[in-house]
Design goal:
CATH class of the largest domain: Alpha Beta
CATH architecture of the largest domain: 3-Layer(bba) Sandwich
Strand content: 15-25%
Mean pLDDT: 97
Shape: globular
Number of domains: 3
Number of strands: 21
CATH superfamily of the largest domain: FAD/NAD(P)-binding domain
Structural class: alpha/beta
Bound molecules: flavin-adenine dinucleotide, nicotinamide-adenine-dinucleotide
Largest sheet: 5 strands, mixed, barrel
Helix content: 25-40%
Length: 477
C-alpha cells in the first residue's frame, strides 16, 4: 500500500502542474497517467504537436508570400515522414523534460490508470496489469477530455479522422472535409491546406468560431477563404457513407448548393467532452452535471471534501493554461491557503494565420449582457511594424468601461496575436485603465504599439489614425 499526501489522477497540463507545485511545497505526491511521462492531451496530441505543424504551415505561407517582395522560392516538397519525425521529436523533447522534472521533484509517477475506491483510496492498474493500492489525504482529478462523437459522423472508416489521427499525419489527402469551424477545424484545416490538401470546412452555425467577436473573425475568415477550397456555413453533415474511393457526405442547410460530395478524408472536430466517467467515482460524493463536467466550487473542491477536480473535466474553456492555473490553486487550497480560482481574464488563442486572441469581456458578451462598453480599435494598416512585415491584416481593440476607462477586455487578430494578448490579460488582472496603456511606452516599431495606440484611440489622440472624439452635440440632428 502506497500512502501519500496528494494523489493526482491525470498527467496533463492540469495534473502535472498541480503535482509539481505540490512537490515544490514539500508534499509527498503520486501522479497517475497512462503515458510514459506527463503531458496529457496537450503535449501528446493537442497544443504542442498542432503548434509544431502550424509553424511549418506558416513557413510555407510565408515562403509563398515572399514572391510579392521579389523573393521567389519553389513550391515546397513535403516529406511526410520527416515532418512527422520533427513533430514527434518536439513532443518527445517536452515529455522527456516532464519526465526529468518528475525525477528531480521526487514525484512518484505511476504509469497506469486509476480507479477510485473511496474518498481516500485509489487502485492503480499499472501498465503491466498489476494493481497497486494508493491511500491519499487529498486527490486531484485531472482526467481531461476527449473528442465528441456525433452518431451521424461516427462511421467505421480509416478515412474519418479525429484530431489525434490528423496530428499523426497519415497522408496528405487530395480532398479533406473538416467538420467544425472551431479551434481544431481551423488550426488543422490550415495545416492540411498548407501541406497541399484541398480543404472544405463545414460549420453548422452562421460563422466560424462561434462566440468570438465578428470583427476579429472577419479578418481571419477572409484569409481562411483564400487558403481553403470552400467554407460552408449554416451547414450540417447529415450523413456519411464509406465508399471505395472516399467518404460520400450529404450536407443539409439553407445555403447548400451541392448536397452530396465525396472526400478522400474527413476530419471531425465538433468539440470535446469531459472524461468524468472515472471508474469508482460513484463511490464518492463527487457530483457530475448534465453536460458531464465534475462539479467544483471556486477552490476546485468537489462535493467530496478530500477530492478536487481541475482542467477540461470541470468545464470550459478547455484550455491548457486554465487547467494549469486551476491545478495550482487546488494544491494551494490543500495546504491551507485561502485562495480561489477567480481570474478576471483567461486568454484564448486560435493559432491560425493570422492568429486570433481575446481575453476578458468580449463585445459579443457585453452585448448579450446589455453592458455599456466603449470599444477602441486600432487597425494594423496604421502600424509601422505591420506595414513593414507586410501583415496589415490585423486589428487590436480594447473593450473599456465607458466611465472609468478600465480595461475589461482585449481582442486581437493578426500575426502573433497569441503573444500580444498576454499584455491585455495582465492589464485586466492589474485593473489597468486606457490611461495606463496609453502612458506606458511601448517599443517601436512593434506590434505591441497597437495596444498602446488603441488606448490612444479611446482618448481621440492616436498618433497614427485620425479618430477624433465626437463632441456630445455632434451627430445630433
Ligand atoms: P488532459 O491534457 O486531457 O490530460 C488528462 C490526462 O488524464 C490524460 O493523459 C489521460 O490519459 C489521463 N487520464 C484520464 N483518465 C485517467 C485515469 N482514470 N487514470 C489516470 N489517468 C487518466 N489548449 C490550449 O490552451 N492551447 C492550445 O494550443 C491547444 N491546442 C489544442 C489542440 C488540439 C488538437 C486539442 C485536442 C486540444 C488543444 N488544446 C489547447 C486543449 C488542451 O489540450 C486541453 O485544454 C488540456 O490538455 C487540458 O488539460 P487537462 O490537464 O485538463 O487534461
Ligand atoms: P470547438 O467547440 O472549438 O468547435 C467546434 C465547432 O464545430 C463549433 O464551431 C460548432 O458550431 C461546430 N459544430 C458542432 N457540431 C457540428 C456539426 N454537426 N456540423 C458542423 N459543425 C458542427 O471544438 P473543437 O474545435 O473540436 O476543439 C475542442 C476544444 O479544444 C476547443 O473548444 C478548445 O477548448 C480546445 N482547443 C484549443 C485550442 C487552442 O487553444 N488554440 C486548439 C484546439 C483545441
Amino acid at each position: 500500500m502506497i500512502t501519500t499526501q496528494l494523489a493526482v489522477v491525470g498527467g496533463g497540463p492540469g495534473g502535472y502542474a498541480a503535482a509539481f507545485l505540490a512537490a515544490d511545497l514539500g508534499l509527498q505526491v503520486v501522479l497517475v497517467d497512462p503515458e510514459d511521462n506527463p503531458g496529457g492531451v496537450c503535449v501528446y496530441r493537442g497544443c504542442i504537436p498542432s503548434k509544431a505543424l502550424l509553424h511549418v504551415a506558416n513557413v510555407v505561407a510565408d515562403s509563398r508570400h515572399a514572391a510579392a517582395w521579389g523573393v521567389t522560392f519553389g513550391e515546397p516538397t513535403i516529406d511526410l515522414d520527416k515532418l512527422r519525425a520533427f513533430k514527434n521529436g518536439v513532443v518527445g523533447r517536452l515529455t522527456g523534460g516532464t519526465g526529468q522534472l518528475v525525477k528531480h521533484r521526487k514525484v512518484r509517477y505511476m504509469k497506469g490508470t486509476a480507479e477510485i475506491v473511496d474518498a481516500h483510496n485509489l487502485s492503480v492498474t499499472l501498465h503491466d496489469g498489476t494493481n497497486e493500492p494508493v491511500r491519499f489525504d487529498h486527490a486531484i482529478l485531472a482526467t481531461g477530455s476527449r473528442p465528441v462523437r456525433v452518431p451521424s459522423l461516427a462511421i467505421e472508416s480509416d478515412r474519418v479522422w479525429d484530431s489525434t489521427t490528423a496530428l499523426d499525419l497519415p497522408s496528405v489527402p487530395k480532398t479533406l472535409l473538416v467538420v467544425g469551424g472551431g479551434y481544431i477545424g481551423l488550426e488543422l484545416g490550415s495545416v492540411y491546406a498548407a501541406l497541399g490538401s484541398q480543404v472544405t470546412i463545414v460549420e453548422m452555425t452562421p460563422g466560424l468560431l462561434p462566440g468570438a467577436d465578428r470583427d476579429l473573425v472577419d479578418v481571419l475568415a477572409k484569409r481562411i477563404r483564400q487558403i481553403v477550397k470552400a467554407v460552408l456555413l449554416n451547414t450540417k453533415v447529415a450523413r456519411m457513407t464509406a465508399e471505395p474511393n472516399g467518404i460520400r457526405v450529404t450536407f443539409e442547410g439553407a445555403d447548400v448548393t451541392e448536397p452530396e460530395q465525396v472526400f478522400d478524408n474527413v476530419l471531425v472536430a465538433v468539440g470535446r467532452r469531459p472524461n468524468s466517467e472515472i471508474p469508482g467515482l460513484d463511490r464518492t460524493a463527487v457530483q457530475v452535471d448534465a453536460r458531464g463536467f465534475i462539479v467544483v466550487d471556486e477552490q476546485r473542491r468537489t462535493h467530496q471534501p478530500s477530492i478536487f477536480a481541475i482542467g477540461d473535466v470541470v468545464g470550459e474553456p478547455m484550455l491548457a493554461h486554465k487547467a494549469s492555473h486551476e491545478g495550482r490553486i487546488a494544491v494551494e487550497v490543500t495546504v491551507g491557503e485561502n485562495v480561489a480560482f477567480e481570474p478576471l481574464a483567461i486568454p484564448a488563442v486560435v493559432f491560425t494565420d493570422p492568429e486570433i486572441a481575446w481575453c476578458g469581456l468580449t463585445e459579443t458578451q457585453a452585448a448579450k449582457e446589455k453592458r455599456a462598453v466603449t470599444v477602441a480599435k486600432f487597425p494594423w494598416a496604421a502600424s509601422g511594424r505591420a506595414i513593414s512585415i507586410d501583415r496589415i491584416d490585423g486589428l487590436t481593440k480594447l473593450v473599456l468601461d465607458p466611465d472609468t476607462g478600465r480595461v475589461l477586455g482585449v481582442g486581437i487578430v493578426g500575426s502573433g496575436a497569441g503573444e500580444l494578448i498576454a499584455e491585455g490579460t495582465l492589464a485586466i488582472e492589474m485593473g489597468a485603465t486606457a490611461a495606463d496603456m496609453k502612458l506606458t511606452i511601448h517599443p517601436h516599431p512593434t506590434l505591441t504599439e497597437t495596444v498602446m495606440e488603441s488606448a490612444e484611440v479611446f482618448y481621440g489622440q492616436a498618433t497614427h489614425v485620425y479618430r477624433p472624439i465626437k463632441k456630445k452635440s455632434e451627430g445630433k440632428s
